[in-house]
Design brief:
Blueprint (H helix, E strand, L loop, with lengths): L1 H20 L1 E9 L5 E7 L4 E8 L4 E7 L3 H7 L3 E8 L2 E7 L4 E7 L8 E3 L2 H29 L4 H28 L4 H7 L2 E2 L2 E2 L7 H14 L6 H20 L1
Helix pairs in contact: 3-4, 3-5, 4-5, 5-6, 6-7
Length: 248
């Protein structure tokens, strides 16, 4: 009888664990938008798919993402990028997978640079990337405003350009250090391709060794991850170009 009871408890535990892995919870609180409507999207390797929407209740929200079919279960089996949208120019992006319970707090009027997150290592690292980008963007925008006001003054423009290059190099140094500290975390994939105003901080050609290194580390951990397919292909192409140049 004890043996049967143990088996039943074990089965119940296994079912519970399986159910948990096929479910992702994202919830939290936004200030300054008590009843606003928000949407949830998943970012695949080649698409941006709205999968749910809800209305804030006194600033609080909760999304439950279920694995109801093979495709959804596959997505939940590995960290994927999820985006919470107030509008297409006011979004919050995090990494999450099945079994995670992500908790977010942010200012609804400007989610970027204001949000705090807990619930998984990937999500917390994404929060660090967002904060660092915001710390780059704020003084960059201030410099641009001064630049526009002094467009005819060569000395001021030169000074501003030098200050901008310092900000750019400092942020790139941060991203490089971030990637080297977390080589097998998918947040490093995001770090390498982070950009601002359509300008990337890294170049696949000029920063090839870093790209090659993190691609190898990430593929060791996530050999079939959809985000890494194009990354792997790009590395292979650049390796081939490099070999041909060396043979010439």
């Amino acid at each position: 009888m004890k043996h049967i009871t143990y088996l039943l408890l074990l089965c119940a535990l296994l079912v519970s664990c399986t159910k948990k892995q096929n479910q992702l919870i994202l919830e939290g609180d936004f200030t300054q938008a008590p009843q606003a409507k928000i949407r949830l999207a998943v970012i695949t390797e080649d698409d941006h798919i709205i999968i749910d929407s809800t209305t804030l209740k006194d600033g609080h929200f909760r999304f439950t993402v279920q694995g109801n079919n093979d495709m959804e279960k596959a997505r939940l089996s590995t960290p994927m990028l999820y985006q919470i949208l107030f509008s297409y120019d006011n979004t919050l992006t995090t990494l999450a997978q099945g079994g995670d319970h992500i908790v977010i707090k942010a200012d609804a009027k400007s989610t970027s640079g204001t949000y705090r997150v807990s619930g998984s290592k990937e999500a917390e690292l994404m929060g660090q990337l967002d904060s660092a980008l915001a710390a780059f963007v704020q003084p960059t925008n201030a410099l641009y405003s001064v630049y526009e006001d002094n467009i005819e003054n060569d000395s001021i423009r030169e000074s501003i350009e030098n200050d901008y290059i310092k900000l750019l190099n400092n942020h790139k140094d941060f991203l490089t250090d971030f990637i080297r500290k977390h080589p097998d975390n998918l947040a490093s994939y995001v770090a390498f391709y982070q950009s601002y105003n359509r300008r990337s901080f890294f170049s696949e050609e000029q920063d090839f060794e870093l790209l090659q290194s993190i691609t190898k580390s990430l593929l060791n951990k996530y050999p079939n991850h959809p985000y890494l397919k194009k990354m792997k292909q790009r590395v292979e192409v650049l390796e081939l170009i490099k070999q041909r140049k060396e043979q010439q």
